[in-house]
């Protein structure tokens, strides 16, 4: 079992003992998504795979949060924000914009990337290097900016 998966399981146990039922519900949902993907792909996910799942869960909740906020549904927005906060506990420290920009520029130079056709290989390399420490949408924007000149 990966260390991150074990940490999630341990946190569920702690939350159950502390009777934090909302937190338990969120973490069990995450755990169910992980288990479903493992069953579908017939593999045991490592920490990188679990981080990908957590990033997708965060993105879904951020999109929902925006919709609820825009439509004045503060009750649902609060629920989504709580779930976001719980899931974010398991994410590594996020890279700053400056660190990310430097890494993008370095990778563009390393790959000799000069056009948008090179974006895929640059993004692939950066995804491996950032592993959950940066939002892929932000990375994509920075790569586009670097490749366009």
Structural account:
It is built from seven helices and no strands. It has helices spanning about 5-15, 20-40, 45-70, 75-90, 95-110, 120-130, 135-149. It has two domains: about 5-90, Hypothetical Protein Yqey, Chain: A, domain1, CATH 1.10.1510.10; about 95-149, Orthogonal Bundle (Arc Repressor Mutant, subunit A), CATH 1.10.10.410. It is globular.
Q: How many structural domains can be distinguished in the coordinates? A: 2
Helix and strand content put the structural class at mainly alpha
Overall number of strands: 0
CATH superfamily of the largest domain: Uncharacterised protein YqeY/AIM41, N-terminal domain
The low-confidence parts are: none
Rounded to the nearest angstrom, the radius of gyration is 18 Å
CATH class of the largest domain: Mainly Alpha
Summarize the main sheet. none
Shape: globular
The name of the CATH topology of the largest domain is Hypothetical Protein Yqey, Chain: A, domain1
Please tell me the overall pLDDT: 90
Element-level helix/strand string:
HHHHHHH
Assigned CATH architecture of the largest domain: Orthogonal Bundle
Estimated share of beta-strand residues: under 5%
| Helical content (DSSP H or I, runs of 4+) | over 70%
User: How many angstroms does the end-to-end distance come to?
Assistant: 44 Å
Count of alpha/pi helices? 7
